[in-house]
Write a structure and sequence with these properties.
By secondary structure, the protein is of the alpha/beta class. The chain has 15 helices and 12 strands. The protein is elongated, with a radius of gyration of 34 Å. The two termini are 61 Å apart.
């Protein structure tokens, strides 16, 4: 896991502006910290010195803070002004950090959801849907500490630490050597703790994915459980999932607290080493009180940003892991290489859909499903696609409504006396919006939004089918429309499908049901085939064609 992910700056506009602003505020903060340390040395040295001060113990750096600030009234006025300015810069930094963090998270969420939509329902249904849900909800929320706490400290480490070390070197070279020798120990321990944190964060995110998948499964099945009177049955399971999530979160927080303690102890010992050395040298008279005070105030400021970087990095590690998962989703290649350069889709009313050699690779790339599928779906007919599970019936339907790009083959729309109009092939498609808008698409598990949460799967299917039949769209594409219905409802739906076809609609149905197959005008067998890396589906599969009119 990298301490700074350049993809956040390269892809997210608000992140770029925030990084630039944070760098500028870090430089201002460094100057204010320096002024505050020198003012404290000016104010305290006359009180602690055994004799009146005869010379400027701050050397060249004393020009930044005049010797007149040794006077209590003058010095306090300067100190109050510097502290107020530092508080104002910190407030502005926090405000900008929250705004930028929220905007960046919102932008990443939008990009992930939009890209997941372009990857298509087949990719989401392959098991990645729960991962997307986890990343864009709880996962990316953990990215906020990265912007609010970690990134500002990273900028301070790049500005305050070098500047303070240079100032200490100008004041007392021995103290600077001690700091320079002990300072690298902080990132070394950060790396050691980070190796453990990285593994824990990855396991935490994976645990969240698993818990989200199980929870979504329970929610999806809740309407069916409610219809059966078993909605309270999963309560114990939900409680177990909640306990598992709490344990995973506490494990991650435990590592964050322990890492902070390790870095705190290390920097405390390093500053103590400087202080003890300085005390012996003060007793021996090898260094002045004003110089010693300035070095003692500045020494913790050298370590503080680096220490905070480690502490806040581990606290925001879950967010970084989620961001990495989000970019992994964004790096997923969308199926096909189509461009919407085919123009506006023609009116499909009265046109026959010709599917020739249609093939789509499975998400794992090992098979064609379907493979080399060819058939015609004419207005006024019911065309049924039949085949075993996993052979590509649903995939073929999604390709017919423009939701999925074919890897091979073509889909044309033809009207009597006109040339065929290409809807899609492996490289070109018409505008999907104008194509899909003419299709009544009912998937296996229709999503009716919040209104459908209280309905069983069969009830949701009936309602989605009613909407499709009432839409008067020229093409109806139905995936397993009778799978979750009783015998009476099944007969009613089949009759509605036949009525829609008699009214002139082009109806294409994927089904296993014998009653639906018997009611079809054309039956098409859908087959899959093993895919070789260089092979076209024609090389292995037997061409799938219409089984004939019934």
């Amino acid at each position: 896991m990298r301490p700074f992910d350049p993809r956040l700056v390269g892809r997210i506009g608000p992140a770029r502006r925030y990084v630039i602003t944070t760098a500028a505020l870090g430089a201002v903060t460094a100057l204010l910290i320096l002024a505050q340390a020198l003012l404290l040395a000016r104010l305290l040295s006359p009180v602690l010195a055994p004799a009146p001060l005869a010379e400027d113990g701050l050397g060249w750096w004393g020009r930044l803070v005049p010797e007149g600030t040794r006077a209590l009234a003058t010095g306090l006025a300067w100190l109050v002004a510097v502290v107020a300015a530092r508080a104002a810069v910190t407030w502005l930094q926090e405000r900008l950090a929250h705004r930028a963090g929220v905007r960046v998270i919102s932008d990443i969420r939008t990009q992930v959801v939009d890209h997941a939509a372009t990857l298509g329902p087949r990719w989401v249904a392959s098991g990645e849907g729960a991962s997307v849900t986890t990343v864009v909800t709880r996962g990316l929320e953990n990215l906020l500490p990265y912007f609010v706490r970690y990134l500002p400290q990273l900028m301070l480490a790049a500005t305050v630490t070098p500047l303070m070390l240079i100032v200490v070197l100008g004041l007392d070279w021995l103290s600077a050597v001690i700091i320079a020798v002990t300072l690298p120990l902080v990132p070394v321990f950060m790396i050691l703790v980070g190796l453990l944190t990285r593994e824990r964060s990855a396991r935490h995110l994976a645990s969240m994915d698993r818990l989200a998948t199980r929870t979504l499964d329970l929610i999806e099945g809740l309407p069916t459980l409610r219809a059966l009177g078993r909605e309270r049955g999963p309560a114990a399971r939900v409680r177990e999932l909640g306990d598992a999530y709490r344990a995973a979160t506490m494990s991650s927080l435990r590592i964050a607290f322990l890492s902070g303690m390790v870095l705190e102890l290390l920097t405390t010992l390093a500053v103590a080493l400087v202080a003890v050395t300085m005390g012996f040298r003060l007793v021996a008279g090898d260094i002045g009180i004003e110089t010693a005070l300035a070095v003692l105030v500045l020494a913790p400021e050298v370590y503080l940003p680096v220490r905070n970087v480690g502490t806040h990095f581990h606290a925001s590690a879950d967010g970084l892991a989620a961001a990495d998962a989000a970019f992994s989703i964004l790096d997923e290649r969308a199926p096909g290489t189509q461009t919407e350069s085919g123009g506006v889709a023609p009116s499909l009313r009265g046109r026959t859909l010709h599917v020739r050699g249609l093939a789509v690779a499975t998400p794992d790339g090992r098979r064609w499903a379907p493979s080399d599928l060819s058939f015609e779906a004419a207005p006024g007919t019911v065309t049924v696609l039949r085949g075993s599970n996993g052979e590509g019936k649903s995939t073929a339907l999604m390709a017919m409504v423009g939701l999925l790009a074919p890897d091979s083959g073509t889909i044309h729309a033809t009207a009597p006396g006109e040339d065929p109009h290409l809807l899609a092939d492996a490289t070109v498609t018409v505008e999907r919006a104008t194509w899909s808008a003419q299709c009544g698409w009912v998937p296996q598990r229709p999503d009716l939004g919040p209104a459908g949460r209280t309905l069983s799967l069969g009830q949701r299917q009936r309602r989605a089918l009613e909407r499709a039949f009432a839409s008067d769209r020229p093409v109806l594409v139905l995936d397993e429309p009778t799978a979750h219905l009783d015998s009476v409802s099944r007969a009613e739906v089949i009759e509605q499908i036949r009525t829609a076809a008699r009214s002139g609609a082009t109806v294409v149905v994927a089904t296993h049901e014998a009653e639906m197959i018997e009611a079809a005008d054309v039956v098409v067998d859908v087959l899959d085939a093993r895919r070789d890396s260089e092979d076209h589906p024609h090389d292995e599969a037997t061409e799938n064609t219409a089984g004939g009119a019934l």
